[in-house]
Amino acid sequence: MVGGAAGARTPKLRIENVSKQFGRIVALDEVSLSIAENEIFALVGDNGAGKSTLMNIISGVHAPSSGSVHVDGEAVSFANHSDARAAGIETVYQDLALMNDLSIASNIFMGEFPTERIGPLSVIDWDETHERAREIMQYELGRDVNVETEVEFFSGGERQLVAVGRALAFDPDVIVLDEPTSALSIDATRLVHETIRRLRDRGITVIIVSHSIESVLDLADRIGVLYQGELVGILDPETTDLMEITELMTTGSIEDASGDGAGTPDDSG
């Protein structure tokens, strides 16, 4: 059973009976969940469970075959990533899509540079670009770095922060992180975890899509488990463990998967 209220929190994002088919393949089967404002929510599951499909629906890459997505209680329809961005949703994909030979500032504002007018021309305002990049890295992410440094000189964890900084440049309400700690060292993972908590503390809803059960147990407020396209449990990290989550991921059932009351936020608020 997936249910039970987690308190009188108004959902920031609500997925309602969402299904997705690719030809005859059912990638998602009537998935419903609500994610609260200012929550870290993790999605886990084996390969093919539907994590990436659900992430791509939230991010505007795919439209659901049926069902609906709601942001702040309003039904939304995304034709592309720009539509999701307009609704306050940003996604940081696993490959990060950073340009190694460009600076932190250039990567953060790639395609959306601050500009100034010089005569009839609109040109990049580099002073504004560097200042805003410093504000994002230092005050929002807690990293005092030279934003004119090329990204290739940074570690995996620091590169993840640059990608998050690029998402923050659009002032999102929701950030989706695709495998944010994949292949990172212990120190880099700790840095990313600190950053994710910092995002939550400034009021951003964070959705983590991950294979790392240990990571989400340490980070998440709640953990949603997908199995063969179905949401089969929503668990509280305080009352579950690695064995229970693994069993749910691999078999699709455990006794009372959400009986601790760690279900979805109260949609009535």
List keywords for this structure.
269 residues; alpha/beta; Rossmann fold; six-stranded mixed β-sheet; four-stranded antiparallel β-sheet; 12 strands; disordered N terminus
- Binned, the helix content reads 25-40%
Q: What fold name goes in the CATH topology slot? A: Rossmann fold
How many discrete domains? 1
CATH classification, class level: Alpha Beta
Give the biggest sheet.
6 strands, mixed
CATH superfamily: P-loop containing nucleotide triphosphate hydrolases
Q: What is the percentage of strand-forming residues?
A: 25-35%
Number of strands: 12
Description of the structure:
It is built from eight helices and twelve strands. It starts with 10 loop residues before the first strand and ends in an 18-residue tail after the last helix. It has 269 residues and is α/β, with parallel strands linked by helices. The radius of gyration is 19 Å and the shape is globular. The protein has a single domain, classed as P-loop containing nucleotide triphosphate hydrolases (Rossmann fold, 3-Layer(aba) Sandwich).
